[in-house]
């Protein structure tokens, strides 16, 4: 036996000591894991709201926040037993500030979930940050096709639409109405470009022709030169994507230029949603396609509209519905994992399997995590977007480029 080697007895003692400290370490590790899991299950749920509070989309941000908070309030302020705590950032609909803004929520506030945003360019920066960090993201408006396309991820969900969807649905409607030559006009950024692309896909498939594509930078509202060009081109109709404050100015300028009487104006429904008070008589009669309308008259929609109007003393719009449904989707996922957000695969599977009972009508979520939903043909009558038909039934975004 070499002097440096311990005796059997010593060996046994060392083995026992090692065994005991290993067990202590194991127990400590297990206890820590249990307490982390418990914290994940029962601690406050930190929700980061990244929405526009200023600029042309400010009122859209307010409606989304109201809708989300209404859902949480109806659950007694808790989802899956976890009290909801809010953290807020005004993203100003400014893509150049988006990465810094979203990192305030992810790195500074350490939120569990982010809900945001309205503007497609800002949402793409948020999706990248969510994908890189693994933070759960619910997009309650921005339609950027890439979010549920090439940027899709197990932790990213959308409660609204892809830009392709309302554009495509409006293209189907305008082809059926018999228009042959159309001019498009929009803001030059992802939402405008992709809405026009979706519109063209459906319209040209049915033999229509887009004779001119006009645009101006977001959020400019100097429409005069472009309206003069439309008048000179004399198309059968115009397709447009504008929203929020910019949409109010466009509808008013279109009428003031005398075009309303001669060239029918169509659009993705954002053109006239949530802003009819401000558009007044100039919006009367405009046709749009969207996944929500003011006169659905279902039991579910009536209950939502009453609760929203009672709580906020405001009429709801599509943005409020999308905010509420972001809450519903979060609730479905979180209840399925009993509040434990580390169970990401189970969370996603529950949302994908759900039939979401929305004010817009029941919808499901595609494999790329985008709503599969009905698009309504609506017409402005007084202060309402009235349903006059179905533009496209259970329309699913193609989810091009999504690998999940
Ligand atoms: C967007 O940027 O994706 C968007 C903004 C307002 C309404 C609809 C879409």
Model description:
With 404 residues, the protein is an alpha/beta fold. Helices cover 44% and strands 20% of the residues. Residues 57, 118-120, 141-144, 163, 191, 243, 270 line the site of benzoic acid.
Short structural summary:
With 404 residues, this protein is of the alpha/beta class. The protein contains 12 helices and 14 strands.
Structural class: alpha/beta
Instruction: Show unreliable segments.
Output: 1-39
Q: Roughly how many Å is the radius of gyration?
A: 26 Å
Topology, number of strands: 14
Query: What's the shape?
Result: globular
Number of helices: 12
Give the bound compounds: benzoic acid
> Hey, roughly how much beta strand do the residues contain?
15-25%
What is the straight-line distance between the termini? 61 Å
Helix percentage range: 40-55%
Largest sheet: 8 strands, mixed
Q: H/E series, N to C?
A: HEHEEHEHEEHEHEHEHEHEHHHEEE
| Assembly type | single chain
What's the mean pLDDT score?
92
